[in-house]
Amino acid sequence: MAPVLEARGLVRRYGPIHAVNQISFGLEEGELLTVFGPNGAGKTTLLGMLAGSFRPHAGEIRLRGEPRDAAATDWRREIGLLSHQTFLYGALTARENLTFFGKLYDLQDLGDRVDTRLEQVGLRGEADRRVHGFSRGMRQRLALARTLLHDPSLVLLDEPFTGLDVHASALLREVLGQLKDGRRTVVLVTHNLIEGLQLADRVAIQVEGRFAFLGARHEIPGGSEEAFYRRWVDGGGRATA
């Protein structure tokens, strides 16, 4: 059976700079790949390419074995993206925000879906509050509910722990665990070493557009996951002895 997601030789340039440079990997159902790396390594650009926001200058992306056609739109229903932008409307309530996005996907049983997702992210009691009064962490949780509203098979998360307190971080870990149990495939970009490693089935370290390391969590060499990661960060994107 073909992987849910497969990247083959992805390249994305900005002038002479290769933000993504020959990245390849595949993920099966229920696998979670955590991507670490220093600032400027091209991690957000990689997620944007996987989500269809950016076209690769070279390489291809396959979903369930089929090359993704940028001109088609049906594949977008399989993808949920949580980015630095929440895409929420402050003048609307939490419930109204999710209802609006649900109608864009023409979802059935929308009221039940909205209630379920609000409960999942711990915002059921805030459903009828306008979003402009939400804290940064609450907005992040509501954006996660929006990301998952249409039950995507591939979930892409860019720094989802940013702005979350201890309680909300624990809730997010629980949600991600539910996604894996539900056979959802996840790509998680984060600087949060502890959370990212706990959740990961596979780990990548992206440096200057490339994957300097890609493997199962237990394959991280050197006996110390943190020490291995710090080699890249403290070395400014270069391996240090």
Which SSEs are present, and which pair or pack?
Blueprint: E1 5-14, E2 17-27, E3 32-36, H1 43-51, E4 58-63, E5 66-67, E6 79-82, H2 94-104, H3 110-120, H4 136-148, E7 154-158, H5 166-181, E8 185-189, H6 193-199, E9 202-207, E10 210-216, H7 225-234
Parallel strand pairs: 3-8, 3-9, 6-7, 7-8
Antiparallel strand pairs: 1-2, 1-4, 4-5, 9-10
Shape: globular
Strand content: 25-35%
Question: What's the overall average pLDDT, rounded?
Answer: 90
CATH first level = Alpha Beta
Portion of residues within helices: 25-40%
Can you count the beta strands? 10
CATH topology value: Rossmann fold
The number of distinct helices, counting runs of at least 4 residues, comes to: 7
Give the CATH H-level superfamily: P-loop containing nucleotide triphosphate hydrolases
**Terminal residue distance:** 40 Å
Q: How many structural domains in the coordinates?
A: 1
Given as residue ranges, the uncertain stretches (5+ residues, pLDDT < 50) are 236-241
Summarize the structure.
This protein has 7 helices and 10 strands. The chain is of the alpha/beta class.
Structure description:
- The chain is an alpha/beta fold.
- It has a single domain (5-234), classed as P-loop containing nucleotide triphosphate hydrolases (Rossmann fold, 3-Layer(aba) Sandwich), CATH 3.40.50.300.
- Helix content is 32%, strand content 25%.
- It has seven helices and ten strands.
- It has helices at residues 43-51, 94-104, 110-120, 136-148, 166-181, 193-199, 225-234; strands at residues 5-14, 17-27, 32-36, 58-63, 66-67, 79-82, 154-158, 185-189, 202-207, 210-216.
- A hairpin with a 2-residue loop joins strand 4 and strand 5 (66-67).
- The longest helix has 16 residues, at 166-181.
- The protein is globular.
